[in-house]
Amino acid sequence: MRVTISRKAHFNAAHRLYRKDWSFEKNDAVFGKCNNPNFHGHNYGLTVSVTGKIDPETGFVLDVKVLADIIREEVEIPFDHKNLNLDVPEFQDLNPTAENIAVVIWNKIRNKIQPNFDLEVVLNETDRNFVTYKGEE
């Protein structure tokens, strides 16, 4: 019997979408107002879901407190109230699009949970825009 548990979290962060190897004009044409040299911010919503077999001893797939601690350590502390481009090492050479942020978060959490669990990350950039990443298939 496989069951999915989920934990919601949020963080606030600034970023700028641009490529260092493109001119300002090309960046502006592709990324528009998200290419603002002074950055812009979002109140990101995050849902992390873990799917696995229920442990017959505990009745848990994974203790939600353990998942909450992983999210806090791997996402909330390093990302909250940060400039993703400048303050988060994973984005020094990676454009911090919602897609790339979701993949980075997935990789950070994946390293902290057992490999027999499936992992899904849903990142809400706005109330209407969100990205889902489940890993490589």
Query: Fraction of residues in helices?
Result: 25-40%
Share of residues in strands: 25-35%
| Biggest beta sheet attributes | 5 strands, mixed
Distance N to C terminus? 22 Å
The total count of strands amounts to 5
User: Outline, from the CA principal axes?
Assistant: elongated
**How much is the radius of gyration in Å?**
17 Å
Order of helices and strands: EHEHEHHEE
Protein name: 6-carboxy-5,6,7,8-tetrahydropterin synthase
Family: Belongs to the PTPS family. QueD subfamily.
Pathway: Purine metabolism; 7-cyano-7-deazaguanine biosynthesis
GO molecular function, one term: 6-carboxytetrahydropterin synthase activity
Give a brief rundown of this model.
With 137 residues, the chain is α+β, with helices and mostly antiparallel strands. It has helices spanning 24-31, 64-79, 84-87, 98-110; strands at 2-15, 40-53, 82-83, 118-124, 130-133.
